[in-house]
Structures are given as C-alpha cells and as structure tokens.
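Anyone have tokens for Class I SAM-dependent methyltransferase? Sequence:
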Amino acid sequence: MTTQRPTLPELARQALSSVQRGYDLLAPKFDHTEYRTPDTVLDATARALRASGPFTDGLDLCCGTGAGVRVLREVCTDRTVGVDFSAGMLAEARYAYATAAPPAPHWVRGDAHALPFRRATFDLVVSFGAFGHFLPAERPHLFAQVRAVLREGGTFAFPMAAPPRPGTAAYWALLGFDAAMRVRNAVWRPRFVMYYRTWPLAEVHRDLLEAGFDVTLHQLPELGHRDDGAPRCRLILATKR
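Reply: yep, here.
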C-alpha cells in the first residue's frame, strides 16, 4: 500500500479513462487524495446515526476504499457490506480491513444501477462522496434501487455539503470544474461523469419523496457554519415508507 499522492500524469490518465477504469488506476493512492471523505465528516455522520440507531445490517453504497464502512461498523450490530464497481478500490478496502476486529466487512463488486442484493436486505444504507458520478436523470432509478434493498422503515443516509456562495472562490472553482468536465465529455470517449453542482438539495429532496422516502435534514454543527449562518453540511435521513 503506497503513501504517495498521485502525480499529475497519473491524474490525467485517470481523467481520460472511464469512471471505472479511472478508479482502478487511482485506487492505490486514493486515500492520499482530497477525494477521500474526511474523517471529520465520517465521525459527524456516525454520531448523528447513533442517535437514530442501532441498526442491524448496513450497506455502504459506492464504498470505494471502504472509509464509510467504518461508520457502519460503529452503528450496526450485525453485517456490514461495501459495494463498488471498481475492483481496484475493493482490493484496497480488503487490504485496509484485513486486520480489523471481527466481524469482518463483506465486499461486493456491483453496479449501483443494478444492486446485486435481495430485496429488503438492509436496515441502513449510507454513501459518501459518490453522487457526482450520477447524472440528475439517474437519481430516481438510483433511489429506487436503494429503497428496494432497504427493509421497511430502513434508513438511507448521506451527508450533503452546502453549496458555496455565488461569487466566492469556491463557487468559481466548482463552476469551472463542471464546465471543464462537460467540455471533456463532449470531445472525448469514454466519458468520465463527475460533477459537483448537479445534486442541489431541493431536487434531491423532491426525488427522494417521489421514490417513496420520508426525508429529514439533520444539521452537523461540528462541521461549522458558513458566514451567512447556514450549516456547512447536513445529513440527509431518508426513511423508507
């Protein structure tokens, strides 16, 4: 397992690949990039979920190298599962948890568009940092997949950061990134779907309701507030009706 960050040529090679191939290439160094979900977000999510639990069986959707599985192991009493379509990322996850205390997580290679699980299998589904890889038109199907694998009353939980205020450096950085990705995908194949501004809270909330969830927003105050007083991050808690 490497402790080195990816080089610029390595990142360029990843960006010119498909999403799956790109993550296979990036996997050995992924945990040393800014793309890994920060521990502060994972810890805040775990604290919030402990107040809603305990849960029995949990699934980390698009688990990558398994950072989010740590949250499941803290709040679930039985089985924890990570699913991802990148063999490289799953290999890193297996390595990271090879010496973890039992029960060991289960790692499953599968596509979030067609989850390879029986219906009503989990009490909790979480996901961290993966939704930029799904276009807005794909949300209803994705949420339907999650709802199908949740037991009645089960919870779908994921953090959502507040968008940067218009005119700030962060706002222009994300706008520029998304614009560059649209140009890249217009002129290059295979596509690499990754956008930061395609999942606004109001639209996500609407699609969850239409998919058959009841939705509550839980502030994560330990992650701070913006200058206008809005929380920097909220935890979406969607309960299967």
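Residues 169-187 form the longest helix (19 residues).
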